[in-house]
Amino acid sequence: MFSFHFMVNAFRAGTIVAVAGGLMGWFMVLRRQAFAGHTLAVLGFPGAAGAVWLGFNAAWGYFGLCGLAALLIAVLPRGGSGRSHESAGIGVVQAFGLAAGFLFVSLYHGYLNGVSSLLFGSFLGITDTQVLVVLLVSVGAVGALAVAGRPLLFASVDADVAAARGVPVRAVSAGFLLVLGLTVAEISQITGALLVFTVLVMPAAAAQALTSRPAAGLAASVLIALGITWGALTAAYHSSWPIGFWIATFGFAVYLAASAWRGWRSRR
Amino acid sequence: MNGPAADPAVASDTVITADRAAVTLGGRPVWSDLSLEVGAGEFVAVLGPNGAGKSTLARAVLGLVPLAAGSLRVLGERPGRHNDAIGYLPQRRSFDPGLRVRGRDIVRLGLDGDRWGLPLPWRSRHGDEARVAETIAMVGGEAFADRPVGEMSGGEQQRLLVAQALVRRPRLLILDEPLDSLDLPNQAAVAALVAEVCADGVAVVMVAHDVNPILPYVDRVVYLGRGAAVSGRPAEVITSSTLSGLFGTPIEVLHASDGRMVVVGQPEPPAYHADRHAHS
User: Fold this and answer.
1) Which pLDDT tens digit goes with each residue over A59-105?
2) In angstroms, rounded to a whole number, what is the distance separating the alpha carbons of residues B82 and B80?
3) Chain A within 8 Å of B105 (Cβ-Cβ)?
4) Minimum Cα–Cα distance from B111: chain A residue
5) How distant is the Cα of A165 from the closest Cα of chain B, in angstroms?
6) What is the predicted pLDDT for the residue at B272?
7) Residue B236 CB partners (closer than 8 Å, separation 6+)
8) How far apart, in whole angstroms, are the C-alpha atoms of residue A43 and residue A65?
9) Of A226, A250, A235, A184, which is closest to residue A7 (Cα–Cα)?
10) CB within 8 Å of B122: residues ≥ 6 apart
11) B99 touching A (Cβ < 8 Å)
12) Among A141, A123, A106, A255, which Cα is nearest to A189's?
């Protein structure tokens, strides 16, 4: 299977995306920001569709709109009683974003490589340039986590005390959202806007069910993400079913198994 | 950032000095004319009805709220300068039941959670691990410290949060309603634990809603109400005449035969229960 260049690129991109997605996803799940993350992913769709319609590379649209949306969510007031209001506001933006993306696709008329590749990914058509872009963004995201991971963990579980200890809680939270937006944009190009969570949430949620040690959880999240990505690529190569289906199925199976294991352990 | 600051200039016994301090939030005066002196090893209770600005006082000492007038010195500096020598336990909100982080890690964050960079084994200071374990033992938390914090009872969480505030061996401990939402045996246990720490020379400022669980240990009380403040020994401040003067309305302090005190007639906002449980 590695005699085909497109399979080599798929494994390269999948591996890079799994590492960054597994780490960022662990923090996103811990911070209960899955909904914000989903919104970023959904907004990648109108971004990419709009970019293609205007004659740009779809990547510009993904990165531009995901980054912009992340900054917007970061400046929205949050916490306390404003929380439900915030989620309603994000939901409204999400619906509008999907509709706008659909409009751009119909305005473009011509062959857009199908709406389906924007929504559900194009794992087997990844270019060398895409691999490079994905690598650069991932290195940036992992580097940011290496520097700020511990204050971010502190701010995530205990914002008041972290602030008293001098952690710039607002800046750390905003920075996390921005990096999350760029990571989502990066993953979107491979998995499509709607299947970002297969890499971002499924491994992280399974890892948190398996262990409550932060370091072990981060490692487990990355390993699970790598496992399901490699497994899905292999399965897709030997079958006619789409790659996105395989990733989601493997991720779901791992999550179910992890939850069952946790339930069994807590009952003992 | 390395543990309690041992600056010789602040080695004096005075931990907090307030002189006619006042705080204004959003144009509304919270309290004013607060004068107070807290020495090392003193246990100070901050009392008063809800909305009187008790938590604001704690946050002012941490430098998180600016003063509108007067002066406030904490460990010989302006507030916020020596926060690495202050252990802080904010008003709690319990942890999300789904939070999958061990209690031990929560305590550990109190020690080095503000440090940047990877927490690689060879980069951590010698003895950090042992210090965390020792502090957990101090609050009697060995039995549950390795469970996810979200699955612990309120009393267990509160013990570990006290450990988190203590893990840097602070010179000043600021506790905002640490006994809130605990049952009576746990209230007594946490109060005794704090008193023990205090006896070791750590100054304690505890915001409390009910003075009775801590009454045996308290050296001084600050009573906030109606934008003003009185401070002094409990027997001087918690009296019918002092509190009636503070609130401008007749207030009675009743003494039960077991030494407990009940303050009757103190104005309480009617929405008290609703906003108190909004975060849990």
Assistant:
1) 888 999 999 988 888 887 655 434 445 677 778 888 888 888 888 88
2) 6
3) yes
4) A165
5) 6
6) 40
7) B242
8) 7
9) A235
10) none
11) yes
12) A123
Q: What is the pLDDT of residue A164?
A: 86
Residue B93's pLDDT is 65
Question: What residues contact B42, with CB distance under 8 A and at least 6 apart?
Answer: B15, B198, B203, B204, B219, B220
- The answer for A 149-168 residues in CB contact with B (under 8 A) is 149-151, 153-154, 157-158, 160-167
User: Residue B91 has which token pair?
Assistant: 């008003």
Tell me the three state secondary structure of residue B38: strand
Given a contact cutoff of 8 angstroms between Cβ atoms, the answer to whether B175 and B206 are in contact is yes
Structure tokens at A144: 């940011």
Interchain CB contacts (distance < 8 Å): A and B = 88
CA dihedral (B197, B203, B207, B210) in degrees, to 10, reads 60
Residues in Cβ contact with A95 at an 8 Å cutoff, skipping those fewer than 6 apart: none
Smallest CA-to-CA distance from B162 within A161, A166, A152, A214 is with A161
Q: Which pTM does this prediction carry?
A: 0.84
User: What are A242-266's pLDDT values in tens digits?
Assistant: 888 899 999 999 999 999 998 888 7
- Residue B275 pLDDT: 42
SS3 at position A126 = coil
Q: Is the dihedral of CA B180, B182, B183, B187 positive or negative?
A: negative
The C-alpha angle A225, A231, A236, rounded to 5 degrees, equals 125
Q: Are A28 and A200 in contact (CB under 8 A)?
A: yes
> Which residues touch A216 (CB under 8 Å, ≥6 apart)?
none
Q: Do B96 and A32 touch (CB under 8 A)?
A: yes
- Give, in degrees to the nearest 5, the angle at Cα A50 between A49 and A53: 85
Q: Which two tokens stand for residue B173?
A: 């401990």
pLDDT the model gives residue B173:
94
Q: Is the dihedral of CA A152, A153, A156, A162 positive or negative?
A: negative
B3 interfacial to chain A (CB closer than 8 Å): no
Q: Measure the CA angle with vertex A97, ends A91 and A98; round to 5°.
A: 95
Task: State residue B231 phi and psi, 5-degree precision.
Answer: -140, 155
DSSP label at residue B83: G
